[in-house]
Write a structure and sequence with these properties.
The complex is a heterodimer.
Chain A lengths: L4 E3 L2 E4 L5 E6 L6 E7 L6 E7 L2 E5 L7 E4 L6 E5 L8 E8 L8 E2 L3 E5 L1
Parallel strand pairs in A: 2-11
Antiparallel strand pairs in A: 1-3, 3-8, 4-5, 4-9, 5-6, 7-8, 9-10, 9-11
Chain B lengths: L2 E5 L2 E5 L4 E8 L3 E9 L6 E6 L5 E4 L2 E5 L3 E6 L8 E9 L5 E3 L3 E6 L1
Parallel strand pairs in B: 2-11
Antiparallel strand pairs in B: 1-3, 3-8, 4-5, 4-9, 6-7, 7-8, 9-10, 9-11
Classes of the chains: A mainly beta, B mainly beta.
Chain lengths: ~110, ~110
């Protein structure tokens, strides 16, 4: 299967700890997106990369959140000093330059902050 | 304010009972409207992209249509395996992000 993969699938952490998630996009896709989804809601946009450049970032994104895509391939999303309100599903999606509108999503990382 | 509203929030149908899901939107500079299916605990699965009013797309028992203010996802003779949350999203002409609605939870009883 050559779809979008995310690791870990589940993460339980204590409030105040830092966590990092990884996303591996479809290999030929140069665009990568991060979303957050809470129960009963649709995904909420967090940030977007084209190759290694971070081109868009949600104004709702706290300074505790940072994302990188160092070589234009995989990406990491780090949350520092986690809070209970950070508990959510974190989704990654990718798309190609030729079909940029079709975003393919990974299975997500479910974060629980105790 | 740009927003996407889906209705109903939940819909229960008998197997074979056709119906429609609604997605209304207000966004400046629509780039495209997208439909996704999401099963519990999984990421959204892409279904359709619609770009202009009057456009229609079909896939198996699903057909999506678009007007200037809303989109419909018609489901014909649904089966239990069609049970899922259906998400609508819109893209801006000026940005790469897309905005999702809250979804419609569809349940098909055998």
């Amino acid at each position: 299967d050559t779809g979008v993969s995310q690791n870990p699938r589940h993460k339980i952490t204590k409030r105040g700890q830092n966590v990092t998630f990884r996303c591996d996009p479809i290999s030929e896709h140069n665009r990568l997106y991060w979303y957050r989804q809470t129960l009963g809601q649709g995904p909420e946009f967090l940030t977007y990369f084209q190759n290694e450049a971070q081109l868009e970032k949600s104004r709702l994104l706290s300074d505790r959140f940072s994302a990188e895509r160092p070589k234009g391939s995989f990406s990491t999303l780090e949350i520092q000093r986690t809070e209970q309100g950070d508990s959510a599903m974190y989704l990654c999606a990718s798309s190609s330059g030729q079909s940029a509108d079709t975003q393919y999503f990974g299975p997500g990382t479910r974060l629980t902050v105790l | 304010e740009d927003q996407v509203t889906q209705s109903p929030e939940a819909l229960r149908l008998q197997e074979g009972e056709s119906s429609s899901l609604n997605c209304s939107y207000t966004v400046s500079g629509l780039r495209g409207l997208f439909w996704y299916r999401q099963d519990p605990g999984k990421g959204p699965e892409f279904l359709f992209t619609l770009y202009s009013a009057g456009e229609e797309k079909e896939k198996e028992r699903l057909k999506a249509t678009l007007t200037k203010k809303e989109s419909f996802l018609h489901i014909t003779a649904p089966k239990p395996e069609d049970s899922a949350t259906y998400l609508c999203a819109v893209g801006y002409s000026s940005a790469s992000k897309i905005i999702f609605g809250s979804g419609t939870r569809l349940s098909i009883r055998p």
